[in-house]
Design brief:
Elements (H helix, E strand, L loop, with lengths): L28 H5 L2 E3 L4 E5 L13 H14 L5 E9 L7 E8 L7 E9 L2 E11 L20 E2 L2 H4 L10 H4 E5 L16 E8 L7 H7 L18 E8 L8 E11 L2 E9 L5 E10 L6
Length: 294
């Protein structure tokens, strides 16, 4: 989860492109920031990057889970992360990190791994990752009605200055985010009755989405409490991400919905559609209710 800022200007939308192409781009900010290097059998090293934080130096959970997913894929005979279930043990900041990947004997279509991510303070994430090799599936689009991207509200650093006490996340410099005005009343001081966010997202440097990017996008929007006017940090405690298909190039539509809010806890469901309207990922997480930034 993360915080966000208020909108600025919006350029025109791009047309959707066919699915199936590999998205990884040499030198892209995401691939660099999630890069890992082998340091032994089942051991990987990573430099957790400061540019993917929430505005307070604390790193975004989706970014951290993408690092975990990359290590799991590189230790698998299969190409894509398709199911990730992770517990977040403590907040993470930019640091040198170690990943331990323990793999089970792989199957013909899937492989399973247990991955831990630790920095100098101790273990940050404990995760179970299933990998497989996805192929593009021709399917009818199921995307809900949403405001066209060119009419949506971009989250900008300039806009953050009009919202005292809400720092601008470094994450938002990396992921271009356009809020659907239907669910963005909180930006203008008009909270909604439902904890729902809907937004178009893509990498700011033009990198196309792929299954690893969908892991990040599943945790990229502001906490749903923002929609109710409840601002502040809402740390993810546990999350499950399911990647259902290879996304087409272009914008992804992300929708998050809050569920029960009780005793300081909230559950959130997320769905992601690609530029052709196909559902390509789902997620569910348990988080603490938003509280004042640390």
């Amino acid at each position: 989860m993360t915080r966000s800022a208020v909108p600025g200007s919006v350029p025109a939308a791009e047309s959707p492109a066919p699915a199936g192409a590999r998205a990884e781009s040499p030198g892209s900010a995401f691939d660099t920031a999630t890069g890992v290097s082998r340091d032994g059998d089942g051991v990987w090293r990573a430099d957790l990057a400061p540019d993917w934080d929430l505005g307070t130096g604390i790193l975004n959970g989706g970014y951290l889970l993408s690092v975990v997913g990359r290590a799991a894929v590189l230790d698998s005979p299969h190409e894509h992360p398709v199911a990730l279930a992770a517990g977040f043990l403590r907040p993470a900041r930019a640091d040198r990190a170690t990943l331990h990947v323990s793999t089970a004997p792989p199957g013909r279509t899937t492989a399973h791994a247990t991955v831990s991510l630790a920095d100098s303070t101790g273990t940050l994430i404990s995760a179970q990752v299933t990998t497989a090799t996805l192929t593009a599936v021709e399917a009818a689009g199921s995307r809900p009605d949403a405001t066209p991207v060119e009419k949506c509200l971009p989250l900008t650093e300039e806009g953050a200055r009009s919202m005292p006490g809400v720092p601008f996340p470094g994450l938002m410099r990396q992921v271009e985010t356009r809020l659907d005005p239907v669910t963005a009343g909180w930006v203008f001081g008009k909270p909604a009755d439902e904890p729902v966010h809907r937004a178009w997202v893509r990498f700011a440097d033009g990198r196309d989405p792929d299954p690893l990017a969908l892991v990040l996008f599943a945790d990229v929007l502001p906490p749903t409490g923002f929609a109710l006017g409840r601002m502040g940090w809402a740390p993810t405690v546990q999350i499950q991400v399911l990647v259902r298909d290879l996304p087409a190039p272009g914008w992804c539509l992300v929708e998050t919905r809050g569920g029960e809010v009780r005793d300081g806890w909230v559950d959130e469901d997320c769905r992601i559609w690609d530029s052709t309207g196909r559902l390509v990922a789902q997620a569910r997480q348990l988080a603490r209710v938003a509280r004042a930034p640390q």
